[in-house]
Amino acid sequence: MNRLVKPRTLFVALTLLCLLAIWLSLALGPVSLPLFDTLRAGARLIGLPVAGEGLEQAELILGQIRLPRTLLGLAVGAVLALSGVAMQGLFRNPLADPGLVGVSAGAALGAAVAIVGGSWVGGIPEVLAPYLLSLCAFLGGLGVTALVYRLGRHDGQTNVATMLLAGIALTALAGAAVGLFTYLADDATLRTLTFWNLGSLNGASYQRLWPLVLVAVLVSLWLPRRAQALNALLLGESEARHLGIEVEKLKRELVFCTALGVGAAVAAAGLIGFIGLVVPHLVRLLAGPDHRVLLPASLLAGASLLLFADLIARLVLAPAELPIGIVTAFIGAPFFLYLLLRGRA
Amino acid sequence: MRPRARLIALCAGLVFNTLAQAEALPQRWVSAGGALSEWVTALGGEQKLVGVDTTSQHPASLKALPSVGYQRQLSAEGVLSLRPDVLVGTEEMGPPPVLAQIRGAGVKVELLSSKADLGAVEGNLQKLGHLLGNEQQARQLFADYRQQLDALQGKIKQLQSTQAAPGVILLVGHAGSKPMIAGKGTSGDWLLRQAGARNLADNEGYKNFSVEALAALDPDVLVFADRSLSGDQALQALLKENPALNASRAARNKRLIELDPTLLVGGLGPRLPVTLQRLSQAFYPTAQ
C-alpha cells in the first residue's frame, strides 16, 4: 500500500483538524452562547485577566460541562484509536479491533454485574456507589483480557491464532452472561444497561476524568516507542525475532496497553464501537503502514473523530441527546463497507 | 472596620436573596416522569412546562413540548438550554453527575417519589402545589383522590365477601407478539390487586411466558396493554400471535380488557381512580 500523503502534511492537517474539533466542541452545544462570550469565558478559564461580568453562565457551561466533556472525548478517542493500531499490529490483520481480545465483552459483563447485581444487593456504600459501574467495567475488561492472554500462552510462547479464537470464545461466553443478566433485570436496570452499551460522553466531570486521562497519557507515550518493533512484527514473528525484537515481551505490552486503555475508556464512557477499527484503517490508507506515522496520526484522528461524533450526538436531538455509540456506528459501518468494496474493485 | 462592613453587607445580601427566592415561584419547569407531568397539568401548571421527558405522554398536548430525552439519560446542557427554573423528576431521574451539573447551574432539582403508595402521592402533590403556588388546590386534589380510592376499596371488600376474586393476568406486548406477563412487585400487579383481582402470575417482575405456561394459567379475565396498537386491533393481534389464549376462560367468555400501557410507568398518576373503577367493573360485572 503506497502512501497518498507525506507524513508531515498529514500531521499538520490532523493537528489542525483536532484543534478545530476541540474548538467546535467547546463552542457548540444545545445552549447557544455568543461567540464573544465563549472566547472571553475561555480566556478566563485559562487564567487571563478578563472582566467576568455577565459571564457566569458561559463560564459554567464551558468550564463545568463542555471542557470536561471535550477532554473525555479526546482521551477516549485517542486511546481507542491507539489500541486499534496495537491490535491490528499484534494480529497482523487490518480487521482486528480492540474487542478481539475480549476487553469490550469483559467490560460489558462487569457493567451488567454492577447495574443489575447492584440493584439486587443494595446497601452499597455511599462513597463507592458512583464509581461502582466504572470500576466493575474496568476490572471486567482487564480480567477477560488477562484470561484470553493466558489461554493463548503455551510453553512460554504466545500463539496469536489461539488468542484470537480464545478471544472470540470468551466474548461469546461473556455475551451469554450479559444476556442472562438482561433476562433477570427489571425494566429500569434494563434501560440503564442498554444505554450504557451505546456509550455516551454525557455527564463528564473532572473527578471521574483523571484516571482515564492518566491512562491515555501513559498509553500515548508508551505505544509510539514500540513503533519500530511493530514495523518489524509486520514482517512476521520469526523475522521480527531475527531482527532482535523481543516478540513475547512486545505482545505482552500490546495486550496490556489495549486492556488498560480500552478498559479505562469503556469505564468512563461506555461501549463506543468502530473508532478502534476505522481510524487506523483510514490513516493507513492515507499514510501507509509505517507505525512511526500510524500511531501518532491515529491518536490525533481518533480524538478528532470522536469529538465530531459527540457534536452530532449532542446537537441532533437537542435538548435530548443521542448515545454516541450510535453515531460512531452510523459513520463507521458505511465507511468500512466502502473500504471493503473499494478493495474488491 | 471595612472588612466587617463588607461581611455584614454580604450576610444581609444573602438573607434578602434567600427571602426573595422563597417568594419567587419557579416559572419555567422541566418535568421528567410521566405521572409527575400529569400531576403538574392537573394542578394547572401546564403552561409553565418548557420541556418534558419521553415518559411524559399524557395529556397528548405535552408531546408538542421539547423532549429532554429519557429520564435516566438527561443531558445537562440540553436541560439548561431550556432555561428552566426547576427540574422535577422522580428518584429514577439521572444520571447523577448530570443532575449535579444542573444543580451547579443554579436550577432547582426536585426529586419526588415514584413509589406506588398513597403517602408518596400526598408528598408529591404537596411539593408540586408548593412550587406552583396553589397548595390549597393540591390538598383538595389529594383529598378527592384518596376519597375515590377509599370508596372503591370499600366496595371491593364488600363484593369479595360474597364472591371470589377473579383470577386475572396482565399481558404487556408489542403488536401482540411475545407478551410479557406482569408478576409480583410490578405496577401492573398493584393495579390488578387494587381493582380486586387475584394476579395468577407469581413470578417477579415482567417476564416472558411460554405459550404452554400461558395456557395453563387459564385466567377468568385477561387484561392486555399494547405499546403499538390499541383497541380491537391490539386484541386481534394478541389472539392471533398467541392462539393458546383463545382457549382460555377469559377469551371464551369475552372478558378481555384493554389497559393504557402508559399507566404502568412512573408512579401513581391522576388517571388511576378512573382506571381502577373500570377494571373493577370488569372484574365484578354482576355488581352493577
From TrEMBL, chain B:
<feature type="coiled-coil region">
    <location>
        <begin position="135"/>
        <end position="162"/>
    </location>
</feature>
<dbReference type="Pfam" id="PF01497">
    <property type="entry name" value="Peripla_BP_2"/>
</dbReference>
<protein>
    <submittedName>
        <fullName>ABC transporter substrate-binding protein</fullName>
    </submittedName>
</protein>
<dbReference type="InterPro" id="IPR002491">
    <property type="entry name" value="ABC_transptr_periplasmic_BD"/>
</dbReference>
<keyword id="KW-0175">Coiled coil</keyword>
<dbReference type="InterPro" id="IPR050902">
    <property type="entry name" value="ABC_Transporter_SBP"/>
</dbReference>
<feature type="domain" description="Fe/B12 periplasmic-binding">
    <location>
        <begin position="28"/>
        <end position="287"/>
    </location>
</feature>
<keyword id="KW-0732">Signal</keyword>
<feature type="signal peptide">
    <location>
        <begin position="1"/>
        <end position="22"/>
    </location>
</feature>
